[in-house]
Known about the structure:
Blueprint: H1 14-26, H2 34-47, E1 51-55, H3 58-68, E2 75-79, H4 84-93, E3 96-100, H5 111-117, E4 122-125, H6 138-147, E5 151-155, E6 163-164, E7 167-168, E8 175-179, E9 192-196, H7 199-209, H8 240-250, H9 253-271, E10 286-287, E11 293-296, H10 300-312, H11 328-334, H12 342-348, E12 351-354, H13 362-376
Parallel strand pairs: 2-3, 2-4, 4-5, 5-8
Antiparallel strand pairs: 1-9, 6-7, 6-10, 8-9, 11-12
Helix pairs in contact: 1-8, 2-8, 3-4, 3-7, 10-13
The protein binds pyridoxal-5'-phosphate.
Amino acid sequence: MNWKIPLFEAYWEEDDVESVANVIRRGRYWTTGPEIEQLEKEIANYVSKKYALSFNSGTSALHAVLLAHDLTNGEVIVPSFTFISTANSVVLAGAKPVFAEIENESYGLDVEDVKEKITSKTRAILPVHYGGAPCKNIKALKEIANDYNLLLIEDAAESLGSRIKNEMVGTFGHSGMFSFCQNKVITSGEGGIIVSDSGEIYQKLKLVRSHGRVENENDYFSTTKELDYIQAGYNYRMSSITAALALSQLKKIDKIIKLRRERAKYFNKILSKIKGIKIPMELQDHYHVYQMYTIQLENNKIREKLRQSLTEAGIMTKVYFNPVHLKTFYRENFNYKQGDLPKTEKISGKVLTLPLYPKLNNKEMDYIIEKIKNCLW
Length: 377
Ligand SMILES: Cc1ncc(COP(=O)(O)O)c(C=O)c1O
Protein backbone atom coordinates (compact mmCIF):
# COMPACT_ATOMS: atom_id res chain seq x y z
CA MET A 1 0.00 0.00 0.00
CA ASN A 2 1.13 3.50 -0.76
CA TRP A 3 0.78 5.10 2.67
CA LYS A 4 0.23 8.82 3.02
CA ILE A 5 2.28 8.54 6.21
CA PRO A 6 4.51 5.46 6.62
CA LEU A 7 5.26 3.95 10.01
CA PHE A 8 8.95 4.77 9.77
CA GLU A 9 11.41 6.34 7.39
CA ALA A 10 15.21 6.31 7.58
CA TYR A 11 16.93 9.60 8.31
CA TRP A 12 19.79 10.28 5.92
CA GLU A 13 21.97 13.11 4.69
CA GLU A 14 24.36 13.44 1.75
CA ASP A 15 27.35 12.36 3.84
CA ASP A 16 25.68 8.94 4.30
CA VAL A 17 25.65 8.54 0.52
CA GLU A 18 29.21 9.77 0.28
CA SER A 19 30.53 7.38 2.92
CA VAL A 20 29.01 4.40 1.11
CA ALA A 21 30.24 5.69 -2.27
CA ASN A 22 33.77 6.05 -0.90
CA VAL A 23 33.96 2.37 -0.05
CA ILE A 24 32.56 1.44 -3.43
CA ARG A 25 34.99 3.71 -5.26
CA ARG A 26 37.87 2.15 -3.37
CA GLY A 27 37.17 -1.09 -5.23
CA ARG A 28 38.83 -3.12 -2.48
CA TYR A 29 37.86 -4.35 0.92
CA TRP A 30 34.12 -4.15 0.53
CA THR A 31 34.51 -6.93 3.07
CA THR A 32 36.65 -6.56 6.24
CA GLY A 33 37.62 -2.96 5.44
CA PRO A 34 38.80 -0.51 8.11
CA GLU A 35 35.20 0.70 8.58
CA ILE A 36 34.37 -2.50 10.47
CA GLU A 37 36.86 -1.99 13.28
CA GLN A 38 36.19 1.73 13.30
CA LEU A 39 32.48 1.12 13.84
CA GLU A 40 33.19 -1.40 16.57
CA LYS A 41 35.55 1.01 18.31
CA GLU A 42 33.07 3.87 18.13
CA ILE A 43 30.10 1.84 19.36
CA ALA A 44 32.14 0.40 22.25
CA ASN A 45 33.14 3.92 23.09
CA TYR A 46 29.60 5.27 22.75
CA VAL A 47 28.18 2.80 25.26
CA SER A 48 31.35 2.60 27.39
CA LYS A 49 32.10 -1.08 26.94
CA LYS A 50 35.48 -2.68 26.24
CA TYR A 51 34.45 -4.64 23.16
CA ALA A 52 32.01 -4.43 20.28
CA LEU A 53 31.69 -6.84 17.37
CA SER A 54 29.56 -6.15 14.30
CA PHE A 55 27.25 -8.61 12.53
CA ASN A 56 25.16 -8.64 9.38
CA SER A 57 21.93 -8.41 11.41
CA GLY A 58 20.68 -8.10 14.95
CA THR A 59 19.42 -11.65 14.69
CA SER A 60 22.79 -13.11 13.70
CA ALA A 61 24.38 -11.06 16.49
CA LEU A 62 21.92 -12.46 19.02
CA HIS A 63 22.41 -16.01 17.78
CA ALA A 64 26.18 -15.61 17.93
CA VAL A 65 26.21 -14.15 21.42
CA LEU A 66 24.09 -16.99 22.77
CA LEU A 67 26.52 -19.47 21.21
CA ALA A 68 29.49 -17.54 22.56
CA HIS A 69 27.98 -17.77 26.04
CA ASP A 70 27.53 -21.49 25.44
CA LEU A 71 23.75 -21.32 25.74
CA THR A 72 23.27 -24.47 23.70
CA ASN A 73 21.04 -26.18 26.24
CA GLY A 74 18.88 -25.42 29.26
CA GLU A 75 16.28 -22.66 29.49
CA VAL A 76 16.44 -18.95 28.72
CA ILE A 77 13.74 -16.62 30.05
CA VAL A 78 12.48 -14.20 27.39
CA PRO A 79 9.49 -11.89 27.00
CA SER A 80 6.75 -12.91 24.59
CA PHE A 81 6.09 -9.23 23.89
CA THR A 82 9.00 -8.88 21.47
CA PHE A 83 10.10 -9.44 17.91
CA ILE A 84 10.23 -13.15 17.08
CA SER A 85 14.01 -13.05 16.73
CA THR A 86 14.54 -12.82 20.52
CA ALA A 87 12.99 -16.25 21.04
CA ASN A 88 14.10 -17.76 17.71
CA SER A 89 17.75 -17.05 18.53
CA VAL A 90 17.42 -19.05 21.72
CA VAL A 91 15.94 -21.98 19.79
CA LEU A 92 18.62 -21.75 17.09
CA ALA A 93 21.36 -21.77 19.73
CA GLY A 94 19.89 -25.00 21.12
CA ALA A 95 18.26 -23.79 24.35
CA LYS A 96 14.58 -23.58 25.24
CA PRO A 97 12.86 -20.20 25.43
CA VAL A 98 10.62 -19.82 28.47
CA PHE A 99 8.27 -16.88 28.10
CA ALA A 100 7.65 -14.51 31.00
CA GLU A 101 5.19 -11.65 31.44
CA ILE A 102 5.92 -7.93 31.04
CA GLU A 103 5.06 -4.93 33.22
CA ASN A 104 2.75 -2.27 31.86
CA GLU A 105 5.04 0.77 32.00
CA SER A 106 8.15 0.18 29.92
CA TYR A 107 6.89 -3.18 28.58
CA GLY A 108 9.98 -4.85 30.00
CA LEU A 109 10.16 -8.24 31.74
CA ASP A 110 8.07 -8.56 34.90
CA VAL A 111 10.38 -9.33 37.81
CA GLU A 112 7.96 -11.47 39.81
CA ASP A 113 7.06 -13.60 36.82
CA VAL A 114 10.71 -14.04 35.90
CA LYS A 115 11.34 -15.39 39.41
CA GLU A 116 8.37 -17.76 39.00
CA LYS A 117 9.77 -19.09 35.75
CA ILE A 118 13.24 -19.90 37.12
CA THR A 119 13.89 -23.65 37.33
CA SER A 120 16.96 -25.81 37.83
CA LYS A 121 17.40 -25.68 34.03
CA THR A 122 17.41 -21.89 33.72
CA ARG A 123 20.71 -20.56 32.43
CA ALA A 124 19.98 -17.02 31.32
CA ILE A 125 17.57 -14.09 31.30
CA LEU A 126 17.17 -12.23 28.02
CA PRO A 127 15.28 -8.96 28.60
CA VAL A 128 14.24 -6.61 25.81
CA HIS A 129 14.42 -2.81 25.99
CA TYR A 130 11.23 -2.04 24.12
CA GLY A 131 10.96 0.64 21.43
CA GLY A 132 13.69 2.91 22.76
CA ALA A 133 12.71 2.72 26.43
CA PRO A 134 14.97 1.26 29.08
CA CYS A 135 13.49 -1.87 30.61
CA LYS A 136 12.10 -0.57 33.92
CA ASN A 137 13.45 -3.41 36.04
CA ILE A 138 16.78 -4.04 34.36
CA LYS A 139 18.68 -3.50 37.63
CA ALA A 140 16.40 -5.88 39.53
CA LEU A 141 16.84 -8.43 36.74
CA LYS A 142 20.59 -8.05 37.08
CA GLU A 143 20.30 -8.80 40.79
CA ILE A 144 18.18 -11.86 40.13
CA ALA A 145 20.71 -13.06 37.58
CA ASN A 146 23.47 -12.60 40.17
CA ASP A 147 21.50 -14.30 42.93
CA TYR A 148 20.68 -17.34 40.79
CA ASN A 149 24.01 -17.42 38.98
CA LEU A 150 22.40 -16.80 35.59
CA LEU A 151 23.63 -14.94 32.54
CA LEU A 152 21.97 -11.64 31.67
CA ILE A 153 22.01 -10.86 27.96
CA GLU A 154 20.18 -7.74 26.79
CA ASP A 155 18.24 -7.49 23.57
CA ALA A 156 18.62 -3.75 23.07
CA ALA A 157 17.96 -4.00 19.31
CA GLU A 158 15.50 -1.11 19.47
CA SER A 159 17.20 1.11 22.00
CA LEU A 160 20.68 2.33 21.08
CA GLY A 161 21.27 5.56 22.99
CA SER A 162 18.63 4.89 25.60
CA ARG A 163 19.87 5.02 29.18
CA ILE A 164 19.13 5.06 32.88
CA LYS A 165 20.95 8.05 34.31
CA ASN A 166 24.31 7.62 32.59
CA GLU A 167 24.18 3.88 32.09
CA MET A 168 23.42 2.91 28.53
CA VAL A 169 21.00 0.08 27.90
CA GLY A 170 22.78 -2.96 26.56
CA THR A 171 25.53 -2.56 29.16
CA PHE A 172 23.84 -3.89 32.30
CA GLY A 173 24.31 -7.57 31.50
CA HIS A 174 27.11 -9.87 30.43
CA SER A 175 26.54 -8.87 26.80
CA GLY A 176 24.10 -6.67 24.90
CA MET A 177 22.88 -6.45 21.29
CA PHE A 178 21.80 -3.52 19.09
CA SER A 179 20.25 -3.67 15.61
CA PHE A 180 20.76 -1.34 12.64
CA CYS A 181 17.75 -2.61 10.67
CA GLN A 182 15.88 0.08 8.76
CA ASN A 183 13.35 0.99 11.46
CA LYS A 184 15.92 1.30 14.27
CA VAL A 185 17.27 4.45 15.98
CA ILE A 186 20.10 4.65 13.45
CA THR A 187 20.26 2.32 10.48
CA SER A 188 22.52 0.82 7.87
CA GLY A 189 19.72 -1.12 6.20
CA GLU A 190 20.68 -4.30 7.99
CA GLY A 191 23.21 -4.91 10.72
CA GLY A 192 23.74 -5.63 14.37
CA ILE A 193 26.40 -5.35 17.03
CA ILE A 194 27.28 -7.04 20.31
CA VAL A 195 28.86 -5.18 23.20
CA SER A 196 30.59 -6.82 26.15
CA ASP A 197 33.41 -6.33 28.64
CA SER A 198 34.58 -9.91 28.27
CA GLY A 199 37.63 -10.55 26.09
CA GLU A 200 36.79 -14.24 26.12
CA ILE A 201 33.31 -13.65 24.71
CA TYR A 202 34.75 -11.28 22.12
CA GLN A 203 37.15 -13.98 20.88
CA LYS A 204 34.40 -16.59 20.79
CA LEU A 205 32.12 -14.23 18.90
CA LYS A 206 34.81 -13.75 16.26
CA LEU A 207 34.97 -17.49 15.66
CA VAL A 208 31.18 -17.81 15.37
CA ARG A 209 31.03 -14.80 13.06
CA SER A 210 33.57 -16.01 10.56
CA HIS A 211 33.65 -19.78 9.94
CA GLY A 212 35.49 -20.69 13.15
CA ARG A 213 38.61 -19.25 11.56
CA VAL A 214 41.60 -18.14 13.62
CA GLU A 215 42.53 -14.68 12.36
CA ASN A 216 44.63 -13.16 15.11
CA GLU A 217 47.07 -11.15 13.05
CA ASN A 218 46.02 -12.02 9.54
CA ASP A 219 42.81 -11.01 7.94
CA TYR A 220 41.77 -13.82 5.59
CA PHE A 221 41.37 -11.53 2.59
CA SER A 222 44.79 -9.88 2.90
CA THR A 223 47.01 -12.82 3.71
CA THR A 224 48.45 -15.63 1.61
CA LYS A 225 48.99 -17.70 4.75
CA GLU A 226 46.83 -20.73 5.32
CA LEU A 227 44.64 -20.13 8.35
CA ASP A 228 43.21 -22.69 10.72
CA TYR A 229 39.56 -23.44 11.47
CA ILE A 230 38.92 -24.65 15.00
CA GLN A 231 35.13 -24.92 15.08
CA ALA A 232 32.16 -24.76 12.76
CA GLY A 233 31.11 -21.14 12.27
CA TYR A 234 28.89 -18.94 10.15
CA ASN A 235 29.44 -16.04 7.84
CA TYR A 236 27.70 -13.42 9.97
CA ARG A 237 30.03 -10.58 8.95
CA MET A 238 28.83 -7.06 8.20
CA SER A 239 30.11 -5.64 4.90
CA SER A 240 32.39 -2.59 4.85
CA ILE A 241 29.72 -0.76 2.82
CA THR A 242 27.20 -1.33 5.61
CA ALA A 243 29.72 -0.38 8.30
CA ALA A 244 30.50 2.88 6.47
CA LEU A 245 26.82 3.75 6.52
CA ALA A 246 26.45 2.78 10.19
CA LEU A 247 29.47 4.96 11.05
CA SER A 248 28.08 7.93 9.24
CA GLN A 249 24.71 7.42 10.94
CA LEU A 250 26.40 7.13 14.33
CA LYS A 251 27.86 10.62 13.82
CA LYS A 252 24.28 11.91 13.77
CA ILE A 253 22.85 9.86 16.60
CA ASP A 254 22.42 12.77 19.02
CA LYS A 255 20.60 14.78 16.36
CA ILE A 256 18.42 11.80 15.39
CA ILE A 257 17.47 11.11 19.00
CA LYS A 258 16.70 14.79 19.55
CA LEU A 259 14.38 14.80 16.54
CA ARG A 260 12.66 11.63 17.74
CA ARG A 261 12.19 13.03 21.25
CA GLU A 262 10.81 16.32 19.95
CA ARG A 263 8.22 14.48 17.89
CA ALA A 264 7.27 12.28 20.82
CA LYS A 265 6.87 15.39 22.97
CA TYR A 266 4.54 16.92 20.37
CA PHE A 267 2.38 13.81 20.29
CA ASN A 268 2.47 13.46 24.09
CA LYS A 269 1.20 16.97 24.69
CA ILE A 270 -1.97 16.42 22.72
CA LEU A 271 -2.60 12.69 22.95
CA SER A 272 -2.22 12.67 26.75
CA LYS A 273 -5.36 14.84 26.90
CA ILE A 274 -7.47 12.37 24.97
CA LYS A 275 -9.42 10.12 27.31
CA GLY A 276 -8.67 6.48 26.73
CA ILE A 277 -5.17 6.93 25.37
CA LYS A 278 -2.16 5.92 27.41
CA ILE A 279 0.93 7.56 25.95
CA PRO A 280 4.41 5.95 26.17
CA MET A 281 5.89 6.35 29.65
CA GLU A 282 9.21 7.94 30.37
CA LEU A 283 10.10 6.89 33.89
CA GLN A 284 12.22 8.99 36.19
CA ASP A 285 15.93 8.90 35.28
CA HIS A 286 15.05 6.94 32.14
CA TYR A 287 16.00 8.44 28.79
CA HIS A 288 13.62 7.25 26.06
CA VAL A 289 14.87 7.45 22.46
CA TYR A 290 11.48 6.68 20.85
CA GLN A 291 12.48 4.11 18.29
CA MET A 292 8.75 3.53 18.40
CA TYR A 293 5.81 5.56 19.64
CA THR A 294 3.37 3.06 21.07
CA ILE A 295 0.08 4.10 22.61
CA GLN A 296 -2.32 1.92 24.55
CA LEU A 297 -6.09 2.03 24.08
CA GLU A 298 -8.77 1.01 26.59
CA ASN A 299 -9.55 -2.31 25.00
CA ASN A 300 -9.03 -4.40 21.89
CA LYS A 301 -12.24 -3.25 20.23
CA ILE A 302 -11.24 0.40 20.39
CA ARG A 303 -7.71 -0.43 19.26
CA GLU A 304 -9.02 -2.24 16.21
CA LYS A 305 -11.43 0.59 15.40
CA LEU A 306 -8.61 3.13 15.58
CA ARG A 307 -6.29 0.95 13.55
CA GLN A 308 -8.92 0.60 10.86
CA SER A 309 -9.72 4.28 10.64
CA LEU A 310 -6.05 5.31 10.52
CA THR A 311 -5.49 2.78 7.74
CA GLU A 312 -8.39 4.31 5.81
CA ALA A 313 -6.75 7.72 6.26
CA GLY A 314 -3.52 6.38 4.75
CA ILE A 315 -1.67 6.32 8.08
CA MET A 316 0.33 3.18 8.67
CA THR A 317 0.22 1.76 12.18
CA LYS A 318 1.20 -1.64 13.51
CA VAL A 319 0.83 -3.86 16.54
CA TYR A 320 4.24 -4.20 18.15
CA PHE A 321 4.03 -6.90 19.34
CA ASN A 322 1.58 -9.72 19.06
CA PRO A 323 2.65 -12.38 21.58
CA VAL A 324 5.40 -14.63 20.27
CA HIS A 325 4.24 -17.61 22.37
CA LEU A 326 1.04 -17.75 20.29
CA LYS A 327 2.79 -18.07 16.93
CA THR A 328 2.40 -21.48 15.30
CA PHE A 329 6.01 -22.54 15.84
CA TYR A 330 5.83 -21.95 19.60
CA ARG A 331 2.34 -23.43 19.95
CA GLU A 332 3.36 -26.57 18.07
CA ASN A 333 6.84 -27.11 19.45
CA PHE A 334 6.60 -25.72 22.97
CA ASN A 335 2.90 -26.30 23.66
CA TYR A 336 2.00 -22.70 24.36
CA LYS A 337 -1.64 -21.67 24.13
CA GLN A 338 -3.91 -18.68 24.58
CA GLY A 339 -4.14 -17.78 28.27
CA ASP A 340 -0.61 -18.86 29.19
CA LEU A 341 0.55 -15.26 29.55
CA PRO A 342 -2.65 -13.32 30.30
CA LYS A 343 -0.99 -10.00 31.11
CA THR A 344 1.07 -10.02 27.92
CA GLU A 345 -1.94 -11.07 25.83
CA LYS A 346 -4.06 -8.28 27.32
CA ILE A 347 -1.46 -5.54 26.78
CA SER A 348 -0.75 -6.80 23.30
CA GLY A 349 -4.44 -6.54 22.45
CA LYS A 350 -4.51 -2.84 23.33
CA VAL A 351 -1.26 -1.38 21.95
CA LEU A 352 -0.81 0.44 18.68
CA THR A 353 2.41 1.89 17.29
CA LEU A 354 2.01 5.20 15.47
CA PRO A 355 4.36 6.67 12.85
CA LEU A 356 7.35 8.41 14.39
CA TYR A 357 10.61 9.23 12.66
CA PRO A 358 12.98 12.20 12.46
CA LYS A 359 11.53 13.70 9.29
CA LEU A 360 7.89 13.43 10.35
CA ASN A 361 6.68 17.04 10.23
CA ASN A 362 4.14 18.99 12.28
CA LYS A 363 1.58 18.94 9.49
CA GLU A 364 1.77 15.17 9.33
CA MET A 365 1.56 14.84 13.10
CA ASP A 366 -1.45 17.17 13.16
CA TYR A 367 -3.09 15.01 10.51
CA ILE A 368 -2.50 11.87 12.59
CA ILE A 369 -3.82 13.59 15.72
CA GLU A 370 -6.90 14.87 13.89
CA LYS A 371 -7.73 11.38 12.61
CA ILE A 372 -7.25 9.92 16.10
CA LYS A 373 -9.56 12.54 17.58
CA ASN A 374 -12.17 11.96 14.88
CA CYS A 375 -12.17 8.27 15.64
CA LEU A 376 -12.17 8.38 19.44
CA TRP A 377 -14.35 11.42 20.16
C1 LIG B 1 13.48 -6.69 20.00
C2 LIG B 1 14.21 -7.10 18.77
N1 LIG B 1 15.07 -8.11 18.82
C3 LIG B 1 15.76 -8.51 17.75
C4 LIG B 1 15.60 -7.90 16.53
C5 LIG B 1 16.35 -8.43 15.35
O1 LIG B 1 17.14 -7.52 14.72
P1 LIG B 1 17.36 -7.61 13.12
O2 LIG B 1 16.08 -7.23 12.46
O3 LIG B 1 18.47 -6.63 12.89
O4 LIG B 1 17.77 -9.00 12.81
C6 LIG B 1 14.71 -6.82 16.42
C7 LIG B 1 14.54 -6.06 15.18
O5 LIG B 1 13.90 -6.28 14.26
C8 LIG B 1 13.97 -6.44 17.55
O6 LIG B 1 13.07 -5.46 17.46
